[in-house]
Amino acid sequence: MIRKFAVLAVAAIGLTACTGNQDMVQQSLNNIKDEMLGIQSTIGDMQVNMQELDKNIRINTESINRNSDALSQLREEMTITNTDIMEIKDRVTELENSKMEFAEAKRPPKVMNEGGEEVIIIEDNIKDKIGLYTYAYELYRNGKYAESEAKFNEFISKYPDVERSDNAMYWLGEIKYAQKDYEGAIVKFQMLVDNYPEGNKVPDALLKMGYSYGNIQDKDNAVKALQKAVGEYPESDAARLATQKLRFWGVN
Questions:
Q1: What is the residue-level pLDDT of the chain in tens, covering all 252 positions?
Q2: Which of 51, 65, 135, 210 qualifies as a FRET site for 164, CA 20 to 30 Å off?
Q3: What total of structural domains would you count in the chain?
Q4: What CATH number did the domain enclosing 107 receive?
Q5: Owning domain of residue 199
Q6: How far is residue 81's CA from residue 77's CA, in Å, rounded to a whole number?
Q7: What distances in angstroms separate CA 239 from CA 169, 220, 232, 234, one per listed residue?
Q8: What distance in Å separates the CA atoms of residue 208 and residue 202, rounded to the nearest whole number?
């Protein structure tokens, strides 16, 4: 009887121990679940933060792109504005030169004859030359490109090697450029560079050659023309504008 009670007591103790272990295991499982829930919550918060960060990055990237585009547009507009200013300066120079030449034409040259007397030499072609050039230029200014082109060609045909011949060739290039005939413009500007290498319009011709090549997507030749303007005529307005264009293209 005592032995049977002892066995029952041991069994009861073992059962109690098993029950205690199960409670501990269950508690551990519950703790793990709680930790997992906490981790999942943390991960969820991190994902939300990452999404918010991605959103901010996208917004900042779009803002940077917009600012970059705006800056590029501003640079392009500055280049165009500077080109316009240069053309206005050219117009003023042309008009001043024409005025001076007309004034000179009103004073016919004098020479001494054999008797030591002054003799006035009448040169009607001087006025004709100045008048033809000025007329061609005014036609260009007023957008009458076909008429202007015809008159500049007439000028060069009559006066192929006078002071304004290189200018006439330059404006023939500008007429082509204004009509978006960029290949035609390149031909005229190159003729100026080749035929009048000492002409005062060579830097401007190189600049516009660079622009023209750029407009037909020939960047290599565009860069060469602009770099030549900068390298050979560093103090000119054309060199300054060429430098701006090269920087806009990311070329040193």
A1: 555 545 545 555 555 555 555 666 567 667 776 767 777 777 777 777 777 777 777 777 666 666 666 665 656 555 555 555 655 655 556 555 545 554 454 454 544 545 555 544 444 455 688 899 999 999 999 999 999 999 999 999 999 999 899 999 999 999 999 999 999 999 999 999 999 999 999 999 999 999 999 999 999 999 999 999 999 999 999 999 999 999 999 997
A2: 210
A3: 1
A4: 1.25.40.10
A5: 75-248
A6: 6
A7: 20, 18, 9, 5
A8: 10
Q: 189 with 170: CB under 8 angstroms?
A: yes
- The rounded distance, in Å, linking the Cα atoms of 107 and 121 is 10
| Residue 160: inside a domain | yes
Residue 69 belongs to some domain of the structure: no
Contact indicator for 204, 193 with CB cutoff of 8 Å: no
Strand partners, 136: none
Please state, as a whole number, how many other Cβ atoms lie within 10 Å of the Cβ of residue 55. Answer: 10
Tell me the residue ranges of DSSP E strands in the chain. Answer: 110-112, 118-120
Domain membership flag for residue 14:
no
230 C-beta neighbours (distance < 10 Å), count: 21
Those residues with Cβ within 8 angstroms of residue 222's Cβ, 6 or more apart along the chain or in another chain: 209, 210, 211, 212, 213, 214
Run of H or E residues at 73:
helix 2-105
